[in-house]
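In practice, a research group might receive sequence data for several interacting partners and want a quick structural hypothesis before committing to experiments. The following worked case mirrors that situation: the sequences arrive first, and a predicted assembly follows.
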Amino acid sequence: MGKVKIGLLGMGTVGSGIWNILKTNRDEILRNCGYEVEVSRILVQNLNRKRDVDAPADLYTDDFQDILEDDEIEIVVEVMGGIEPAREYILRAMEANKHVVSANKALIASHGKEIFEKAKSKNVMFLYEASVAGGIPVLSTIRESLAGNKVEEVMGIVNGTTNYILTKMAKDGVDFDSVLKEAQDKGYAELDPTADVEGYDAAHKLTILGSLSFGANIDFSSVYREGIINITPTDIEYAKELGYAIKLLAIGKDRGGDIEMRVHPTFIPLDHPLASVGDVFNAVFLKGNAVGDLMFYGRGAGDMPTGSAVVGDIMDIVKNKDNIYYASNSVDEKTVKPMEETVCKYYIRIMVKDKPGVLGKIASKFGESNVSLSSVIQKGRKTPTVSLVFITHNSKEGNIRKAMNNILSIDEVVEIANLIRVENGVDE
Amino acid sequence: MGKVKIGLLGMGTVGSGIWNILKTNRDEILRNCGYEVEVSRILVQNLNRKRDVDAPADLYTDDFQDILEDDEIEIVVEVMGGIEPAREYILRAMEANKHVVSANKALIASHGKEIFEKAKSKNVMFLYEASVAGGIPVLSTIRESLAGNKVEEVMGIVNGTTNYILTKMAKDGVDFDSVLKEAQDKGYAELDPTADVEGYDAAHKLTILGSLSFGANIDFSSVYREGIINITPTDIEYAKELGYAIKLLAIGKDRGGDIEMRVHPTFIPLDHPLASVGDVFNAVFLKGNAVGDLMFYGRGAGDMPTGSAVVGDIMDIVKNKDNIYYASNSVDEKTVKPMEETVCKYYIRIMVKDKPGVLGKIASKFGESNVSLSSVIQKGRKTPTVSLVFITHNSKEGNIRKAMNNILSIDEVVEIANLIRVENGVDE
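A structural hypothesis for the assembly, expressed as tokens:
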């Protein structure tokens, strides 16, 4: 049996997952790809740090050159994270004719094009399954099994931290700040939670997912992004009452013309398969023009699930290294539709002073901006200010924004408490 | 651009799906596999039958020899169904060095070994994604993306007809016969529904799924099989009350030692992702020792979804025909555990004459057979016979059967109205 040697960049959570999987599943790996896969060098910043894995001390190095110049290393696996020096190391590894596997979503979302082009020019493979939805093999499925489909829509719960927070808020009726605090205590959320709760992480993943699904180079900066910090238990209650759950969705649509790429909290019908994806789980729902509706569900993070995706990529390269392919279908520079042009339904909650005629005034402003309403809820009259809740029919975002401005000019209107987009259910 | 020619055996539902996908998604296919894929011959039984697809008349033939002897045809796609002559044609096509794609679950479940061996000996590829769960790419995912995992468990809703029936029964509270009748009227169920409602179709698919997942040659006849015809609205009501849904599950487990392979109606916790898979949808839930819990959801039948899986296989062959691989990991002849040795929880509903002491007598019989109980429901006292419902702790099937025999010997016991196995929820 031949042996394939790996240079591992980074030995954090994912790195140790990879190490443990290669060891525990040695027999399966040998059987399934016909080669023994061995980590022969590990790049770390600090050689003296104590680590939880049983890798021999002499595998560690703090000099990338040791991996780059080792001709026996055919595959470099980058799980160090961050933009630099990860980007530089990947490009140099490819320059030295090594295949590369990466789990680095921020890097691929922002510098994917450069990396894909380098891989192509050097005739090496670049795979990055672990960068989206952790252990769920969604990228390879789109690339391989759905290669005969036109993917028209992807909708993903791709950030476990925010899904945990929203699930917990819905279950216990508590507010965002308390749940975030608890998630931080449990280690589900970072001390600086910005990347998760503001939707940056989900937007990185959507950039990668959309680029592959729609065969386009999509620029990360063109993805609309909105986080979950404004979601309140009140909104979650209204959602339930109206038959919806609130999820942070990464949505991409390609129905001809400009594509849609947006990350925002979303009302999703309770009977939609995404609605019951709870806790830290991830799921990606997609529509192919042949396969119809498809959903993948699983763990989006963690040493072993993410390691599983990386090991799957390594084995893919091992099997295909004599018949390599390029894992990017990006043929077009597709344009992302400006958010103002996007059409969907909206949930809008407005705080008003409880005076006669205010509902009529607001309804008129909606009408003047070409927004038509499908439901209105008005409740309780015990407080001087009350909530008015509207669900619109399909409307252009631009018209909604105009309506919001006009509604704010009404004297009795205290504030637009929230505005959340609504997606439809599964076609039957 | 090169062209790859296909010989299509059969032009029914799936055949026309394949034809339409190859036409509609011509550009995607060319882009993703680098070849034009063309159906150049179509084998049908009756040349004079009118068909819904726009294939030119001169592609049709009723003589398999026309495809076999056409050296330009590199791939034979078998979607004719049935055992013979499908088996013979597949083997002869391989003998003539053609790659083969098949959607024929009954054939692969019963003659897979012979076909895999022929493919290997002739150095051709044999792919069969469409044979399990229609459009859902579960086989390729297990084979490729999860190749670095030991799959420990698969649980699938792999028969759309029975899932439709059970969903409808649960929703409307109606009995099996009425829903079956309605499903037949709608075309969701065959006039002879045996293969579906008795679980044969699910058992075929489980044989294929388990063989691939566990790297074993599994004999179809060793798969335990039980259908849904005994499920009543009463059982579904009790399930709901206890926090479960009833689904026909195809279950395979490989936790060391003999494997489990069984198809039967199953209580599944309402918060399990499989519980909310409704109507004709299919889903496969699996546990890998690295990736953890994973679920795939989608359409298990229909021209386009099933065609999508076949086209995915065709493209896989086109991309790999110079670097072929074998799509069967079957290395062992694993033994299936006798059903008597299987351990799980049980829901048991017993009809008894409502006399004092009967519950005590039954409970003693359970105890004598080493079956311990976790819940008991006794309801209503208006009728001479009443239902007693038990949920057991984990018990050996053999002990359960012994207990049932002993319980039947109690005078006040009228009948064992139902016995349904219970599976646990997702590990958190």
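Before designing any experiment, note the following. The two ends of chain A are 50 Å apart (CA to CA). Chain A touches chain B through 62 residues (CB under 8 Å).
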